[in-house]
């Protein structure tokens, strides 16, 4: 899952990056509103964490522009404690949730996971697809109740397929959501991860629609 963190306080940004990465997100950091507006409007993210007090362009303006331009990524707004008017205006502008500073990272992660699940039309953290179980909170996978040891990258790919199990996911979309800007992005990288997943999960779990992409097979 791919997350954009928009925060000009570098210490807070670094803390957010560590927490989200430990929860299975691939995190990109932005420090100012103008860059955030461009990135959020031209890239697809599973989650955006947006501070409202930003240089060059304030967070509320960024959010309004995103929504006016059709950006549908879930946005978790960070606000100063007690700034209730900001929170109301943020939600009216299109924020999906808000969190007042200071906050506990555990709460932020819980809210982030809930936003990602809701965006994918999933209400619970435990996703069941036939014989496959994917626990998004504990970052665990099992087939027929037997745990399967996965690397973080393998789990991110499997979790993305589970959240979007009602459709075929193109390799280009998986590349975009699995790898950061500094990583080499090649189509065969996704194919290599899919091959490892199939080896570990067994046959009949991860399917391919040739020329279109990958999907989870409902074996029930």
From TrEMBL:
It comes from the Bacteria. It comes from Neogemmobacter tilapiae. Residues 124-218 form the OmpR/PhoB-type domain. Residues 2-116 form the Response regulatory domain. The keyword Repeat does not apply. One of its GO terms (molecular function) is phosphorelay response regulator activity. InterPro entries: CheY-like_superfamily, OmpR/PhoB-type_DNA-bd, Sig_transdc_resp-reg_receiver, WalR-like, WH-like_DNA-bd_sf. GO terms for cellular component: cytosol; protein-DNA complex. Keywords: DNA-binding, Phosphoprotein, Transcription, Transcription regulation, Two-component regulatory system. SUPFAM superfamilies: CheY-like. This is DNA-binding response regulator. The modification 4-aspartylphosphate is found at residue 51. Residues 124-218 bind DNA. It holds the Pfam family Trans_reg_C. Signal peptide: none annotated. One of its GO terms (biological process) is regulation of DNA-templated transcription.
């Amino acid at each position: 899952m791919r997350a954009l963190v928009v925060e000009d306080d570098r210490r807070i940004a670094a803390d957010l990056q560590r927490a989200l990465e430990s929860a299975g997100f691939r995190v990109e950091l932005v420090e100012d509103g103008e860059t955030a507006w461009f990135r959020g409007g031209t890239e697809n993210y599973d989650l955006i964490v947006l501070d409202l007090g930003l240089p060059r362009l304030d967070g509320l303006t960024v959010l309004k522009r995103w929504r006016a331009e059709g950006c549908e990524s879930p946005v978790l707004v960070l606000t100063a404690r007690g700034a209730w008017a900001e929170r109301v205006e943020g939600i009216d502008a299109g924020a999906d949730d808000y969190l007042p500073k200071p906050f506990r990272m555990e709460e932020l992660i819980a809210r982030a996971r809930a936003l990602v699940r809701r965006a994918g039309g999933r209400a619970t953290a435990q996703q069941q697809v036939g014989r496959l179980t994917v626990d998004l909170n504990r970052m665990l996978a099992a087939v027929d109740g037997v745990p399967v040891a996965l690397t973080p990258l393998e789990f991110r790919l499997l979790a993305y397929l589970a959240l979007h199990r009602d459709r075929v996911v193109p390799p280009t979309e998986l590349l975009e959501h699995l790898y950061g800007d500094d990583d080499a992005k090649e189509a065969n990288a996704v194919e290599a991860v899919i091959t490892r997943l199939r080896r570990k999960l067994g046959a009949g779990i991860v399917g391919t629609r040739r020329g279109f992409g990958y999907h989870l097979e409902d074996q029930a």
